[in-house]
Design brief:
Elements (H helix, E strand, L loop, with lengths): L1 H28 L4 H6 L5 H11 L5 H13 L13 H36 L4 H15 L2 H15 L11 H31 L2 H8 L4 H29 L3 H6 L5 H11 L2 H29 L1 H9 L1
Helix pairs in contact: 1-13, 5-6, 5-8, 5-10, 6-8, 7-8, 8-10, 10-13, 12-13, 13-14
Length: 310
């Protein structure tokens, strides 16, 4: 495990270099000039050149990229073109809000998705199975901006139970977390159902039944634990994507998180903000994948056997 972690850390360096190079190239390829967004297209040429010099956009692209790498080595993402604040400070300020939203969505999606998928598998080819499958497909198919607006219309405008937008306590989290959880709930339900059905037909389950072990123990101890292996991957990827900021959900509900911050940076062509958010997202995905791999080591004995054989 130690050697594996060391290899992952070493591979992190070229991966981050590739991400920074690709993102930097794409941001520079975006149409428009951030200077014009700051001062307007009718500004005097000397004013435009002065601002370009202050922002460092008057240098060639290679010099700008090398300068940005130097900032990264110092633990900095640069300053926002619009607020002149350190991007890393803004990300650290907004990340707790995104973490709250991600945790809220997962607290809804994981238990509900696992339960619905398990019930659908045990009631295969029945009316209950078809209803759960229909709900799961609907949750996966309906866009979050549509479901979010419907939930806002129902609970905020009609029933007046919850605030329609803003960042705050539990009341503000419920609607965006529920909106964000619907696609994950549908995916988890479908994967859980498929995995459980495959495991129920395996020989060790039939052997357990032949030994007289109760169905509840078989489902909870034997089936559920083995079903967790592929499900853990889906949960990890969903959680990582939520930690990167759900752009549409945060924008619809006015949630002050990483996703909304990224969208504002793209709209304003605020290159340091875009780069900082992308690099942060890359680190989050790498960290979550590493955690999932470690969980595999403890959930699946075959992984431990392979590690020892190496």
């Amino acid at each position: 495990m130690k050697s594996y972690l060391i290899k992952r850390v070493i591979l992190l360096i070229p991966l981050l270099l590739g991400v920074t190079l690709l993102t930097f190239s794409l941001t520079k390829a975006l149409p428009g000039d951030p200077v014009f967004s700051l001062v307007g297209e009718r500004a005097q040429p000397e004013v435009i050149e002065k601002i370009r010099k202050e922002l460092g956009t008057d240098n060639n692209v290679l010099s700008q990229y090398l300068g940005y790498l130097k900032l990264l080595m110092q633990g900095e993402f640069g300053r926002s073109y619009y607020t002149n604040r350190h991007v890393v400070d803004d990300i650290m300020t907004k990340f707790p809000n995104t973490l709250k939203l991600a945790m809220g969505a997962m607290l809804i999606a994981v238990p509900a998705g696992l339960m619905l998928g398990f019930v659908a598998a045990l009631k295969r080819n029945t009316a209950i199975d078809r209803i759960i499958s229909l709900c799961a497909v609907s949750g996966m198919s309906v866009p979050v901006f549509w479901s979010g607006l419907l939930l806002m219309l129902l609970f905020s405008l009609k029933l007046k139970m919850l605030p329609p937008s803003g960042t705050g306590d539990l009341q503000f989290i419920i609607l965006p977390a529920l909106t964000l959880s619907l696609p994950a709930m549908g995916i988890l339900s479908r994967i859980t159902r498929t995995t459980v059905l495959e495991i129920l037909d395996l020989p060790f389950v039939k052997t357990a039944r032949a030994k007289g072990i109760g169905e509840i123990k078989i489902h909870l101890v034997h089936v559920f634990r083995n079903a967790l292996i592929p499900i853990t991957t889906v949960i990890g990827l969903d959680f990582a994507s939520y930690l990167n900021g759900a752009v549409l959900t945060e924008t619809i509900f006015g949630w002050d998180g990483i996703g909304r911050f990224t969208m504002e940076g793209i709209i304003k062509r605020d290159y340091p903000v875009i780069m900082g958010c992308v690099i942060t997202g890359t680190l989050i995905f790498i960290l979550i994948n590493l955690v999932v791999d470690i969980l595999y080591h403890y959930l699946d004995p075959r992984v431990r056997i392979d590690d020892k054989s190496r």
